[in-house]
Amino acid sequence: MVIATYRVIDNPQALAKRAEGIAVGLTIGSWTELVQTRHQQVALHCGQVEGIEVIDEVSGGRVIAEISIGYPQANFDGTFASLLTTVFGKLSMDGEIRLIRLQIPNQLAAQFPGPKFGVSGCRARYNVETRPLVMSIFKACVGLTLPELVEQFEAQARGGIDLVKDDEIFFTEAYATPEARVVAYRAAAQRVAEKTGRETAYAVNLTGPVHQLQQRAQKLAELGAGALLVNMVAYGYDVVAALAADPEINVPILAHPAVSGALYGGDTYGIEADIVLGQLARMAGADMVIFPSMYGSVVLGEAATARLIGHLRSESVHRPALPAPSAGIYPGLVPQLYRDFGNDLIVNAGGGIHGHPGGPAAGGQAFVEAIRAVQGGWSLADAAKESDVLRQALEKWGTPS
Amino acid sequence: MVIATYRVIDNPQALAKRAEGIAVGLTIGSWTELVQTRHQQVALHCGQVEGIEVIDEVSGGRVIAEISIGYPQANFDGTFASLLTTVFGKLSMDGEIRLIRLQIPNQLAAQFPGPKFGVSGCRARYNVETRPLVMSIFKACVGLTLPELVEQFEAQARGGIDLVKDDEIFFTEAYATPEARVVAYRAAAQRVAEKTGRETAYAVNLTGPVHQLQQRAQKLAELGAGALLVNMVAYGYDVVAALAADPEINVPILAHPAVSGALYGGDTYGIEADIVLGQLARMAGADMVIFPSMYGSVVLGEAATARLIGHLRSESVHRPALPAPSAGIYPGLVPQLYRDFGNDLIVNAGGGIHGHPGGPAAGGQAFVEAIRAVQGGWSLADAAKESDVLRQALEKWGTPS
């Protein structure tokens, strides 16, 4: 059984009947009456009520309750379309109801691709054995010429960044197609590598019509893309899964959470953030997942973040994925990041790199130094004595209080 | 410019800065500072604040406001991924913010396929010149054998139904694949047509991995499918667009709203229902769109419904689509349906057909009689004198008070 748990607001007397209506109506029945489970074959597909728990009272005699429904595995076909339509299809339109938990048996989970690379595959790919990876974003993409973009890429590469990602809103091909960018940035990375010994990878925004995406992804991989940045919710999980399942697309997938707030933002409707950005992302094959950090202005909350990380890392038929918390990341925060997330992490900075007084190369270098310090067991203050760029970063952004 | 309007809750003093941050930051800039619009090329891509309107005060000194932002057309690439990521990507995660309106210039709208058939194409396809179409749903699908399903289909066909649709949660292929069903129901429809003169069409649930969908859709069309039922939000608008844009898929698309409530259900987050189920559905190429009616237990509300219908029918670069309001539809409601929606409508009934005392054939026939009455200018009461099945339906469900 796939067990879905919903938070509802309803009259307490209505809960049992509502749960039964969901279990039967969203599997084998219609909305007017229970279908007679007149033979075993149909019964195999019938949903069942797994539990009803009243959580709290609200106004007007209503309560907040959690209803759990089991859906037989046989009702699904291994796609996210089947999963979401079944557990939160019509039901999503049924008033104050929110999908808050999904328990998926391994046998069904195994029908989804999961990460092709995962944590260890990304570490091997980006040649980063133990420490957190460092990722940056272009300060600007849209409207810039290829030489201007290459200049930004090189600056970040000189700072020792492991992975530079596109702005996820970079769709225009007027000045620099994704293909041209992959080729140009790879050349730039190789130039920088001659001096630094490290080749910075590029996460290119995968764009265009869905029926061309797999071919485009293959091409970009062949040209040397370091990763594919995919607007996961905008395109849909099944689109991501098609990329992850394709052996010809031999490059990690970096999932961007654009549009996901439209699903998880509320609390009486929609789908919990940890499901949207953790559980489903990993099943769909995201190797690295960007999500709102606890350090920005709008946060998911500690519990939701813990559940999200848990989904990315739990024992599973799928490889674990790398979390990339985003927003409000600066070098002085790095020890906190280790405490909150451990080693298997992408330190993902935008302003925290570009805003460095010495420019983006210095900004990237400051993060690299901060990570080196934590890896080596030194305090940032001590490390800053040996590193101007780190010192400047600590002067500008400080450390968390 | 694509102009997106958002409903936000914020401090009134913060609104102008927030609007500016959206306009610049979600086009050409980063989150830390404004990018210098140092040359014309970048400026072409910069967003602009189109308006800020305070609507109401709420607690804590905050206000509800509507912020409108213009995004240059050049930032989009003709996909829904680019549209949604740009206008509601990161922004969707920015706290209490809801996308409530989207104004899309014809030049950009024309890059989206729109309905291949539209109202007139569906009328021609289903041979229904002027009256509303009648659609029914299988009472049950999951777990039934092909002969049992054919029996249900034939009963509905005998009732004179124009279009019979699958349950949108019908994914299992254990007993009857979509291909086998299309062939079997077509044969059944032809058998019934020999007696009734009308061939009932079948809207088959299009299922499976995205990279196989186009091919499967073509095959189902060749085998004689009357329409493709597509879980539009579960699969994603770009997936629907790929089907609509494909000339080899010569069959109308019937969009199901499953999962859409997760996007539109709230009021401080998400995306308005008329955008999700009206505007974007038509742009994506849905020829017929199922949405919650005003007659069910959970409604969109009059204003939202009017906007949704407006989106399906407005003067546009795209053909208009047929609305299929769903929930709480029974024969006695038909005159009300005409008043609320006019002729270009799909009368979409489930329980209102299967719950008829005489069975589904009688149930379908009762709708056909009710529509015939309204077309001919007779009252239902008068028509019921000549029609047992209509009389029984009126006795069971009545008419709206």
From TrEMBL, chains A, B:
Transmembrane segments: none annotated. Keywords: Isomerase. Its EC number is 5.3.2.5. GO terms for biological process: carbon fixation. One of its GO terms (molecular function) is magnesium ion binding. It comes from the Bacteria. Residues 2-103 form the Ribulose bisphosphate carboxylase large subunit ferrodoxin-like N-terminal domain. It holds the Pfam family RuBisCO_large. Residues 119-397 form the Ribulose bisphosphate carboxylase large subunit C-terminal domain. Belongs to the RuBisCO large chain family. PANTHER family: RIBULOSE BISPHOSPHATE CARBOXYLASE, RIBULOSE BISPHOSPHATE CARBOXYLASE LARGE CHAIN. This is 2,3-diketo-5-methylthiopentyl-1-phosphate enolase. It comes from Alicyclobacillus acidoterrestris (strain ATCC 49025 / DSM 3922 / CIP 106132 / NCIMB 13137 / GD3B).
